[in-house]
Amino acid sequence: MSPSYDVVVIGLGGMGGAAAHHLSARGARVLGLERFGPVHSRGSSHGGSRITRQSYFEDPAYVPLLLRAYELYEDLARATGREIALLCGGVMVGRPESRTVAGSLRSAERWDLPHEMLDAKEIRRRFPTLTPDDDEVALYESRAGLLRPENTVAAHLQLATRQGAALHFEEPVLRWEPYRDGVRVHTAENTYTADHLVICPGAWAPRLLADVGVPVTVERQVMYWFQPRGGTGRFVPERHPVYIWEDAAGVQVYGFPAIDGPEGGAKVAFFRKGRVTTPETIDRTVHDDEVTAMAEHMARCVPDLPGTFLKAATCMYSTTPDEHFVIARHPVHPESVTVACGFSGHGFKFVPVVGEILADLALTGSTAHPIGLFDPARLAAAPARDSSERGARP
Ligand SMILES: Cc1cc2nc3c(=O)[nH]c(=O)nc-3n(C[C@H](O)[C@H](O)[C@H](O)COP(=O)(O)OP(=O)(O)OC[C@H]3O[C@@H](n4cnc5c(N)ncnc54)[C@H](O)[C@@H]3O)c2cc1C
Q1: Fewest CB atoms less than 10 Å from the CB: which of 30, 227, 265, 278?
Q2: CB proximity list for 331: less than 8 A, separation 6 or greater
Q3: Is 182 annotated as a binding residue?
Q4: To test ligand 1's pocket by mutation, which of 9, 22, 36, 44 has the most ligand atoms within 8 angstroms of CB?
Q5: Would you say residue 1 has pLDDT above 80?
Q6: pLDDT tier, 213 (very low <50, low <70, confident <90, very high otherwise)
Q7: How many alpha carbons lie under 13 Å from residue 70 in its C-beta half-sphere?
Q8: Which pTM value belongs to this model?
């Protein structure tokens, strides 16, 4: 007879790990199935740091979820003793009318979030590592900062295990099907049955969730670490904030303080300048021309950052046509399957609250959290995102 569970979770990365934790915390008998090992670097949840912020330029509808996520970062740190969030402050920089600045201000005002507007002179005075043009401004948010993605994933897996969840690694799901009132899930090792299935496949969504009707485009993204000129002293979190910086052409870069000691450098990356790829074919090599392009871009806004190139790593975005997430009961199998995908390069800061929402949806069919924006029906008729205009290497 197949082993039977209340809920099977496919994918134990950021979202699936959080789901396994919240489901098992509520007493569900959970099986988690993961293609790779625990806390791996072949999906979307690695690289040492992720930005978190509340004045959300993408849409004010995300703010209530962020307020809850911040509470959950603290719970997670307390329950596991791990460093989850480092709220060192952050600046959203650009021209006043840029999406980064105007959108952040809109969310801050809509939700009455603590923030300050800084002109170029004030940015340079407060953060001497940053050199904005005279017509650039910033929204400063003291509660912005960074998350430690590997610690976050490990913490969720640790709690899930402690609460009795069975987590199987190196056991990819080959296929699943509706079975009686629930589902049947097949791996090379076994066949499992469950009342409910939660699918959190990250960049494997085009394969695992083809029948959801959501066009998800997988993009290769590169993270770069540089040792700043003059060392990391001026780049520590007390002096150098996280930032997202939009230039006149609409190109956004984002970066972090030096958090890995004097030799670890500081990380920077382009937000959305990725090439379309797949998890099977992604080019994991970072090429010299990419490093040069990044260094040249940073020379204008954080001139001391591109001192010495240290290393780079690739990661994948799973992008929907409108860059909003998909979190819902499965449109074809609403009774027995819940899905979470298409986090479009900005999902990590929501990881704990997505876990809570997935537990709500899986166990009760609904959630009190506002997730209307993430309904897959909005994308049913949309064509896959055309990345050709952004497909060139930066
Ligand atoms: C370079 C980069 C920078 C980013 N920066 C930020 C940031 O600053 N702030 C922010 O909020 N977000 C950021 N993001 C986005 C964020 O990291 C992602 O939205 C988030 O990690 C996605 O989590 P996930 O659970 O969907 O995917 P993953 O963590 O990749 O998890 C999916 C899991 O499913 C597993 N899986 C797939 N298929 C199967 C199968 N058949 N059987 C079993 N397991 C399977 C995979 O192995 C994987 O472990 C960034 C992403 C990247 C790549």
Answers
A1: 278
A2: 212, 213, 376, 377, 380
A3: no
A4: 44
A5: no
A6: confident
A7: 16
A8: 0.96
